[in-house]
Amino acid sequence: MDTLLIIDDEKSILDLLGVVMRKEGYRVVTNPGTSKAYEALSGGDIDLVITDVKMPQLDGMAFLKTVRTQKPTVPIIVITAFGSVKQAVEALKEGALDYVTKPFDIEELKILVAHGLEQKRLREENILLKRTFQERAQFENMIGKSKAMQEVFHLIERVATTDSTVLITGESGTGKEMAARAIHANSRRKDHPFVSINCAALPESLLESELFGHVKGSFTGAVSDKKGMFETADRGTIFLDEVGEMSPWTQVKLFRVLQERKVRRVGGTEEIPVDVRIIAATNQDLKKRIEEGKFREELFYRLNVISFEMPPLRKRPEDIPLLVAHFLPKHCQKTGRKMKRLAPDVIGFLETYPWPGNVRELENLIERIVAVEERETVTLASLPADVLGAHRKPAVAVTLRPGFNLEEHLDQISKRYIQEAGMASGGNLKKAADLLGIGYRSLRYLLDKYGIQSFKKSESSDRRESSN
Questions:
Q1: Is 157 helix (H, G, I), strand (E, B) or coil?
Q2: Is 274 a residue whose pLDDT tops 90?
Q3: CB 279 within 8 A of CB 166
């Protein structure tokens, strides 16, 4: 049970919030705005703080700073009188989650509390995951609690202790290079270079020179001897991304390096020994490429000593809230923008979106939202049209099999239509109900049933509109 600490010098507000929040299932600790608030903060596990900032016996701003210092993951919601909004804005700069003005909308406050507790849970889960990974190994910025990602982390740990060649497969944007860097960072070679090259980004003649080096005069523009990446990566790791795009001739030379552990520069005759671990990656089916005569079978078996696949994001939707919680502060800090929050139905939408670009696409979406969205709360209407459009696919035939649940299937369809009506109506309940062809009360019932909260902030105005 989550514990809320509520501080205000008005007893009526303390009593009201105490009753309301207990009915919501929270444990509540109240304080009438005295110095004993500090004792309440340190006396037990507090999950969220609701506090006034202007009280005769307690400096709310000083208390806020104490919470940020002692309990940095605990979210703070500030209550303020209308005339002191400026002070509330200062509280946001000090790290408060949000503020409400008196007299406040109790439904809005409920949503803020639920959102704050969810943020705290995700933040602490992120911290725990990162701490666990740091204790066990260095996993760069790889994030995931799903079974699929836990298996990847475990395999990286096992593989890192060897010098075996590794082939990482998976769709574009799944984090193949991150996995390669994590293997290197946990290996005995970690104090030596990690050199990465995208084999699809260079023409054949230039790729050969980049990989193996060249001698002066070997081709036009070769004005001096140059080390290749294999020599540069000596005693370290070389990462060959999109290895399936190599030309047959470069594949022959790469196979020779893997076989003999020596390189010969373009135009040279000297054999140069190299001590390099090779990690390759591809988003293609190399066995199919072999059948088509586009990839050499002997090279495939040299690369495929240890192999694993990076799972696509659509197969690990439980990792999406964690990734969002990681990318949002990253890009807000990078751009100097105020921290934003995502409405609950946005997270639900992101968890069901197919993500053809995987984690890279998700991060690009978050970066775009931070850059262009002016509002603090990101709604479904804030998402780009191409993302929303890609998710609106025509219904397909359902394959009936044991375990199929018709009620759950119909609920999913109903929820999707309600979310789209919300986007089309701008969150207006009456307009959304009209679009769906149902009554206002029926829509309110369905919103509560499916836990869709993005309409609730406009509830009072919608009620007035529906009564006209």
A1: helix
A2: yes
A3: yes
- Mapping DSSP to helix (H, G, I), strand (E, B) and coil, where does residue 130 land? helix
Six-digit token pair at 93? Answer: 């700069």
| Domains in the chain: ranges and CATH | 3-127 (3.40.50.2300), 142-311 (3.40.50.300), 317-391 (1.10.8.60), 406-467 (1.10.10)
What average pLDDT is seen over the chain? 84
Q: Give tens-digit pLDDT for 76-117.
A: 998 887 656 677 777 787 788 888 888 888 888 998 899 889
CA-based angle 77:83:88, to the nearest 5?
A: 30
Question: Encoding tokens for residue 30?
Answer: 């109240």
Instruction: Please name the amino acid found at residue 138.
Output: Q
Cα gap 92→65, rounded to integer Å: 11
- Please tell me the pTM assigned to this model: 0.59
Which tokens in the block code for residue 323? 């990734």
**Whole-number Å distance between alpha carbons of 24 and 29:** 14
Query: How far is CA 122 from each of CA 319, 327, 328, rounded to the nearest angstrom?
Result: 10, 12, 12
User: What's the confidence (pLDDT) of residue 403?
Assistant: 66
